Each structure stands twice: as C-alpha cells, then as structure tokens.
From TrEMBL:
It comes from Prosthecobacter debontii. This is Lysophospholipase, alpha-beta hydrolase superfamily. GO terms for molecular function: carboxylic ester hydrolase activity. Keywords: Hydrolase. It comes from the Bacteria.
C-alpha cells in the first residue's frame, strides 16, 4: 500500500494508506483477497478504491500499530486513514476521554484527508478496537455521522465496570474494588470527566448504520460479557452481527486462526462501498 503522513489542522498526526496494484501485494494482501473470493465476493482489481475506512486504535497503541490491519483492508479495495489518539503516539494532547470529547476526530480525519488528497469522502466506514471502539461508537452517534458501516472489536459497554473487572483479577475482589475506586477517582481528577460518564452503550442504542461487534471468548482485559452488552444495546431494528473469536484474548484477537480480517472486510464490502 502507498503511505502518506501528515497532520490535521489541530496537530493530530495521521497516515493515509491507499491500495496498490496486484503485482505489488504482499502475502497478507493475497491471503485476504483469496479468503474473500472463497466467500463468493467478487473483488475489484487490486489498486481500485471502493471506499474509505477510518481505523481508531486502542489504549497504549498508536497509528503505526494498525498498518498491518490497513494493509489487509487496502488489499480488498479500501483506502484507510489512521490517526494517533490524544495521549498516544505523537498526539500533542495529554488526556484521552474514550470518545466523550474525541467523537469529532474521526469525521475530521475523513474530511481533512479528502480535501488534502482530493478524493470523495463517501462511501466511508469506521472501525475501532478496545478504547478505539468506545471512540468509534461515540463518533457514530454524532449528528450527521457519515459512516455507512461500523465495526467494533474487543470493546466495552461502560468503562467503570471494565476497570473493576481488571482490578479484581489483579488484586482480588475486596482490594480490587478499592483499587478500581482509586483509579477512577484519579482519572476524574486529572481529566475533569467522571468515569461513570463513559458509557458507549448509551450511544450504541442510537446508532443507525450496520454494526458488527466482535470479541474474543477468553478476553481477560474486557470480558466478552461487556462486549455482548454493548451489542445488545444496539437497536433491534438495526442491521447488526455479533462475532465471537474462539479462544482469543484481548491482545491476540486479531492473530488467531479465526478469519477476523476477512469477516471485517466482508462487512465493510457489503455496507461501506
């Protein structure tokens, strides 16, 4: 894929990834194209762009960590846009608010990229993982959200309970409760935002675009039940899909034998092109 680095008008470091022709595809690109063909999907020739996807990374990650995801999605025809979230990578911001205050960043990335690199901003899809899933759900609930499809991987329905689960697994039920309370208070003091205000499920209930939510069955960071509650918060009338990745933990959900990339690519191919 072809890469271009630049920064948004607010200083957010970003990367544009665009598809390349068939002869320049690597093994990952060739594999996902074959998987899509095996699913009966007739792809455009490699190098042709069918839509644009914004990818939102998780906590303790940065935009470059998602280049291998972008490589696969570019191989099936999607232009991908990556950006460092606040307090991550090279972003000048000092705090992350899990989408409460960053909800406008994905659409700003799409808008400024389309203007800078001279492409139509539609059709467009949005993908977020873990913390990025929370940001993506908040972004998808924005007024006039441009996203035709949404994918959320290994994310949560509410941040507070997710912190409590992690704390209890590390220190036990009693100490875990104290640790979680102290961590929540510290975050609220530093950010000016109560942890209880970070509830993606509230925004999920108002979504209007086809949404796929995937989660590893052995996730020890964000329990699968939290992801399932996020899925169940989606409107009943919505086109949606719940995907369980067998045996996957939080950090390896994208690298098991389960064809998660093909599953994501198929969803975006159906609804975001």
């Amino acid at each position: 894929m072809r890469l271009e680095k630049w920064s948004l008008s607010d200083g957010t470091p970003s990367i544009l990834c665009e598809p390349v022709a068939e002869g320049k595809l690597g093994q990952r690109g060739l594999k996902i194209r074959q998987q899509m063909l095996d699913r009966g999907i007739e792809l455009k020739p490699a190098g042709q762009v069918v839509g644009t996807l914004v990818l939102v990374h998780g906590r303790k990650a940065r935009k470059e960590d998602y280049l291998l995801i972008a490589e696969r999605l570019c191989a099936v025809g999607f232009r991908c846009l990556l950006a460092d979230m606040p307090a991550h990578g090279e972003h000048p911001g000092q705090m992350i608010y899990y989408g409460v205050r960053e909800a406008g960043l994905p659409v700003r990335l799409l808008k400024e990229a389309s203007e800078r690199f001279h492409f139509a901003p539609q059709p467009a899809g949005l993908l977020g993982m873990s913390m990025g899933g929370s940001v993506a759900v908040h972004a998808a609930d924005q007024p006039d959200a441009p996203w035709r499809a949404l994918v959320v991987i290994s994310s949560f329905d509410a941040l507070g309970p997710a912190i409590e689960v992690q704390a209890q697994k590390m220190t036990g039920a009693w100490l875990g409760g104290l640790w979680a309370g102290a961590a929540s208070e510290a975050y609220s003091w530093r950010s000016g935002l109560a942890v209880s205000a970070i509830q993606p499920r509230v925004h999920a209930a108002r979504l209007r675009m086809p949404t796929l939510i995937a989660h590893g069955t052995q996730d020890h960071v964000v329990p699968m039940e939290s992801g399932r509650r996020l899925y169940e918060a989606l409107p009943e009338s919505l086109v949606k899909q719940w995907v369980e990745v067998p045996g996957a933990d939080h950090d390896n959900v994208l690298i098991t034998d389960f064809p998660i990339y093909a599953t994501v690519a198929e969803w975006m191919w159906k609804y975001a092109r």
